[in-house]
Amino acid sequence: MEDYTFLLLIAIILLSTKLFGVLSAKVHLPQVAGALLAGILLGPTGLNVLHSTDFLAKTAELGVIILMFTAGIDTDLEELKETGLKACLIAVMGVFVPLFLCGGLYFVFFKGSFTAYDVLKAAFVGSIFSATSVGITVETLNEMGKLKTKTGTTLLSAALIDDIIGIIVLSVLSGFSTGDSKVLVVLLKIALFFVFVCAMAFVFHKVFVMISKEHWHSRRVAVWAFAFCLIMAYCAEELFGVADITGAYFAGLTLCNIAKSREYIAKKMTVTSYMIFVPVFFASVGMKTNLRTMNSHILIFALFLVIAAVISKIIGCGLAAKICKFPGNQSLVIGIGMVARSEVALMVAQKGMDVGMVDESILPAIILTVIASALITPILLKFSISKGGSLE
User: For the chain, what percent of residues have pLDDT higher than 70?
Assistant: First the structure.
């Protein structure tokens, strides 16, 4: 007899993640925090009514692919061009300082040896905290009327570039995690992947421009775009050994400046993803976080990881902003504005676990750091703006 339990599991996940998402929004936290909390409370840590299954794992994987595809579509290339080198420098520092600091902390805490495998695992943990989620920053700056300032625009552009660099770093790390000991072979595959991306982007951008002239509001456009996303995700993983979410992101980036179709596709994909796939992804991450297994060593690591995750962005991005001739208080605001982590950090963590580069035992520390960064950012941002005066 066929088992229909998966229907009940989906219903529980959708209801609980939505309920906790609404509650978290009420206290000015991102809804992702509520969705994670729902998974934690209903998983092994709490009531133990939700358990990971192959169906939920595949659904969650689709959720993360759609999230990255939508992130690519929402990238504003014109905004990136306006801020140019300043945003690039801030983004580069915002990626590599957390990568080395958080990765180094993991290496020291878990007594890694200087083998390629241990260094790669440390780098993967560091890469989790390289990406920035500026949703909270945008909300805070908008509330204070500072979003349209030069500082606000530079901060947002740096966050976009930050994500792109983070995805490239993930591509390199996931390429090496396949177990291929030939460094040149891995680098060649990654190089070929980006050649492939450029070729596909050139062809399919023209195809979708032609389609959008007459059929931009047709549901078929959204279906074709999603199919393109899935093909790119498949090719990235299967042909080049690069993370599937990297292929999905660049598929979205290909379509990000196609006038009317961009907004229509993004709208349809957002509805599709948040109807089922994304809640399952966040709940599944929460389910894998068993706080009952946390020992004092992991708890102390989590505390230091929160400190490293916050300090690394403030120092890295703030110092880069200072080099770019921003005044002291504006440099601090830019650094603090890049502190929050969210969806991308969780996606990288999930990918790291899939390829055996991130131990499931440290997932509680990662989750606590992501939530803590989301809590700390608006508090520090409001304090620094109120004490530092006006922003340009």
Answer: 90
- pLDDT, residue 383, reads 82
- What are the pLDDT digits (tens) for 215-260? 666 678 888 999 999 999 999 989 988 878 889 989 998 988 886 7
pLDDT of residue 1: 44
HEC profile for 286-326?
HHCCCHHHCCHHHHHHHHHHHHHHHHHHHHHHHHHHHHCCC
Task: Decide: residue 169, CB within 10 A, 0-12 exposed, 13-18 middle, 19+ buried.
Answer: buried
Say how far apart CA 177 and CA 84 lie, in whole Å. Answer: 33
Size (the chain), residues? 392
Q: Is the pTM of this model over 0.85?
A: no
Helix (H) or strand (E) holding 149: none
Q: Which two structure tokens, joined as six digits, stand for 95?
A: 């990626």
CA distance to 148, 203, 334, per residue, from 328 (Å): 19, 45, 10
SS3 content of the chain, % helix, strand, coil (to 5): 80, 0, 20
Phi and psi of 67, rounded to 5°? -60, -45
By CB atoms closer than 10 A (0-12, 13-18, 19+), residue 190 is buried
